Amino acid sequence: MKVAVAGCCHGALDKMYETLELLQRRHNVRPDLLLCCGDFQAVRNEADLRCMAVPAKYRHMQTFYRYYSGEKKAPVLTVFIGGNHEASNHLQELPYGGWVAPNIYYLGYAGVVRFRGVRIGGISGIFKSHDYRKGHFECPPYNQQTIRSAYHVRNIEVFKLKQLKRPIDIFMSHDWPRSIYHYGNKKQLLKMKSFFRQEVESNTLGSPAASELLQHLKPTYWFSAHLHVKFAAFMQHETNSKDELPKATKFLALDKCLPHRDFLQIIDVEHDPNAGDSLEYDAEWIAVLKATNSLVNVTQSSWNMPEKNGLHAKWDYSVTEEAIKEVLEELNNDLKIPCNFTLTAACYDPSKPQKNMEPVHTINPQTTEFCAQFGLTDINDRIQQAKEEGSGRGECEEEEEEEMDSTGSAEEPSEYNTDNSGLSSFNPDEIMLDDEGGDEDLSTCSVDRSPDHPAEFSTSFSDIRIMPDSMAVSSDDAMDSNNEELEKSGGSKQVEEKSLTERSLKRIGGDENGNSGVKKIKRRNQAIYAAEDEDK
């Protein structure tokens, strides 16, 4: 089947879906599934905008609300993970995943689903060591710290994913797995993004947690976004025994959404022709959620996951075939995810703006139903109980702790050397969250309604690439010498100029947008929010 993979969407759903429709009209290529690697921005109303970690002047409504209200419907099944610029209050309603709109499914903090027999996993957010060992304690209304920490990856999600034994076909993360740049054309990457050099040379660019998952899960494909540059790599995994078959992962990072280059990729993925067209639960993942339910933590206290170090009675939470069979029996062998989308907030009305709308902590019926069905803890319900009982600080209390820099917290040392999944060097193409001379007032927001008649996107259609099954990528050394040859031979010509034939990932494109992170610098390109600053 054909799978479309998009980088940072930034709420521009109309543009993304219109591009897919243009692809079908011009070249008779229709994806069966669309995957988005974070910064999806499922913003329903003005309150959601205030829960998105960007300066107020960059909070724009975009077009998701039209799909949430039912005015429009996604023309293709869309599955996405969260990034570091999201309506965190909305996504927090669905910690185990769920529908944010008809035909648009969020994978949750971490999740695994199946579509046509293809096993798809993902983890939301970005890595920060000072929050990694905490529980999911945040809830709206957020303060200046928690509006950021809400999207930071937690160790419990990584631990759950590491319990999986069955093969994963596709995995998504927002930030890149650390060290993946050593398995692709590093020379070309640094040519496009010279400010990555320090982190690449010191091997600190990317997420160490994602790298750990990459080595454990060894998926066939791994897709990421976040750094706003297209990059391909091929990683051959080491085998643990003589009997184990060699495995390799084809990695691809996508650029941000239109009109920028390389935001969308089409690949062919082997699937089960006898499988249905519905999105399905993954039985092993459900069994893992049940097995690890006792580990759920909704406090700010830092704690480590169980490991074989003599301190824990149990450290292996992987599940047996019998446990998986029990899940199947509970579902009567019907793994279809119910289409139980429910409106949980008022939808933005362009004719009646409500700039003073306050975000509230909401318990989503989808999560309630999911937890009841499988005997799981409703994280938001637990947070609400903690607030009411006063048994924990919770996310709603005002914290006076200062924003930590990329070295992490001295009081709560990380198990990793550094915590930055982006860059510590200065990137002139980024914006600072406090670029107005201080922290943004979360009580303000700017609503910029998208035009009813978007511009013609045919000029951007050339940014789509069709990719073959193999996605064959040579090693770093080989690619360094090959890439210049590809450029000279027109390997980066637009789709308008060439037929949609199979292409190797040897071509690695990108524009001059990138990502870096010094203290309080977030991985968001200013051009995303200000059209006049967009790349030419």
TrEMBL record:
Q: Which GO terms describe its biological process?
A: mRNA splicing, via spliceosome
Chief location bin? nucleus
The record places domain Lariat debranching enzyme C-terminal at: 235-380
Listed InterPro entries = Calcineurin-like_PHP, DBR1_C, Dbr1_N, Metallo-depent_PP-like
**Where is the sequence biased in composition, kind Acidic residues?**
396-405, 431-442
What segment(s) does the record annotate as region Disordered?
386-536
Keyword annotations: Hydrolase, Iron, Manganese, Metal-binding, mRNA processing, Nucleus, Zinc
Any idea which GO molecular function terms this record carries? metal ion binding; RNA lariat debranching enzyme activity
Q: Where is the composition biased (Basic and acidic residues)?
A: 386-395, 485-510
Checking Pfam families in the record gives: DBR1, Metallophos
Listed under GO cellular component are: nucleus
What family does the entry list? Belongs to the lariat debranching enzyme family.
Protein's recorded name = DBR1 enzyme
Source species, please? Myiagra hebetior
